[in-house]
Amino acid sequence: MNKGRFSPRRVIDFLFSADRAVYLFLLAIPVLFISAMSHWYYVPVWESGRGQWLESSLSFGEALARLLMLLTALAVPYFCLRKPIVSRFFQRVCWSLLILVAFFPFYISHWQPEQFMAGNIIHQELERVSADMEANMVHQQRDWRYWQEMDSSVFGNYKGVTIPEKDGWAMSYLYPSAHQYIFQQIFSYSNDFLNVVSRGWVFAGSGLIILLIAMSLVPVSPGAGRFPNVIFICGITVFFVVLLVMPRAISEYQLQKAEHYAAQGNTSQAIELYRSAVDWKPSLRFSLDYYHSSLGVLLNKRGCNYCYETLMMRFAEYIGKGKTTQARITLSLIEQMYPRRSEVAFWFDALNNRMAIEAFNLGQYSLAAEYWESSRQFVPFNPVSHYGLALVNVKLKRFSQASESLEKLVTLQEYLTFKRLTIKGQYIVMQGWSAYWNDDYHNAFQLYSLGLTPEVW
């Protein structure tokens, strides 16, 4: 038999004789390819040019990261399978990429605040909706949830999702008690992020770890001892921490200096520093109670009554005093004077939802529906709006429309990694009531039975 010809026997002999590191290298290649081809953080994004939310878009950081994963997968055969030793250069490149992948949550929360807020809204509000559904199960005894109110323990004093504020960095962050806060709130390894992050990010970390484990099983290029690699890993980690966290640290420093200048009466310097801080920490644009109020007070003293931050300060005051009608009028004025701002859309959504919940619990269902429809115009992926419209349609015995609203909640759950069964179960029950009111009793029985069987949700 010709030795140069391909045969299954030669493949089998190679697989049995190959070192275990070869199997890990071969495993890492498809894992990295999947990472390069898959989304890392798939949520609706804000298009500032159009002033609206789009289904999804690829940020520059994610596109670059996925390209690096693709190049790494293509480089594995050359650097790891061509020779019996591993290139020290390629090994250190993989370590650097793994550290960068670990900082991806920080990149999203810091430089892509619209995407991060969208993920927070989807996760936090779906949790809130699920909790309200479970708290009101008793109201399914007649016409599904006909007697329901939106539970005060779940929606009481509704303000929307948690927003970023000033951190006030200090030496106390070095204490062990602050480490959890740093890990979850600064580096963004929170439940909100981990429940929304897509498989591309998970496969990137997994592929690089598999690759590095395989490299540890084979010799490295001459002159590359294990100890120098440890020094390199520590050094590159510190470098990336400083490089990535520095913008946030600069922003916090500028905010503290702005407070100092404001206390001294130097409003010009304080205003300049406040506005400069947003360039280093874009998520401050969503901070109503701290950032806009502080800057608005200074601008108001200088007679700028219709500056953006001054109007946001008034909006914050109305919200704090519970004057929701005046707050909505002020926000409408801001929208007219300063259109296409993502933070205004966010606050309009939160305010409309708050007013809709109050109207709903007072029995003003048409008004509540109007607020929720308005809310969907600003943030179409907020689960509370769809859930509220479903409840209004139940009150008005429009079960088909209610079923459509709940179907959108089921669709929104596709963004999450871990999904609650409650929403899908309630959607099926609603379909059953819709069929019943359309005199389709057989289908109603089948759907209601299905809604009582969690195993098939």
- In CATH, what is the homologous superfamily of the domain at 125-179 and 346-457? Tetratricopeptide repeat domain
Please state the second-level CATH architecture of the domain at 125-179 and 346-457: Alpha Horseshoe
Largest sheet, strands/sense/barrel: 2 strands, antiparallel
- What best-fitting shape do the alpha-carbon axes yield? flat
Structural class: mainly alpha
Overview of this structure, please?
Among the domains are: 17-103 and 187-224; 125-179 and 346-457, Serine Threonine Protein Phosphatase 5, Tetratricopeptide repeat, CATH 1.25.40.10. The chain has 21 helices and 4 strands. The chain has helices at residues 8-17, 20-37, 60-81, 88-102, 104-111, 113-135, 152-155, 179-186, 191-196, 199-216, 226-264, 267-280, 288-301, 308-320, 324-337, 342-361, 365-378, 383-395, 399-412, 421-437, 441-451, and strands at 45-47, 52-54, 141-142, 144-145. It has a two-stranded antiparallel ribbon. The chain has a two-stranded parallel sheet with strand order 3-4. Helix 2 packs antiparallel against helix 10 and helix 16 (342-361) packs antiparallel against helix 17 (365-378). The longest helix is centred in the middle third of the chain and has 39 residues, at 226-264. The radius of gyration is 27 Å and the shape is flat.
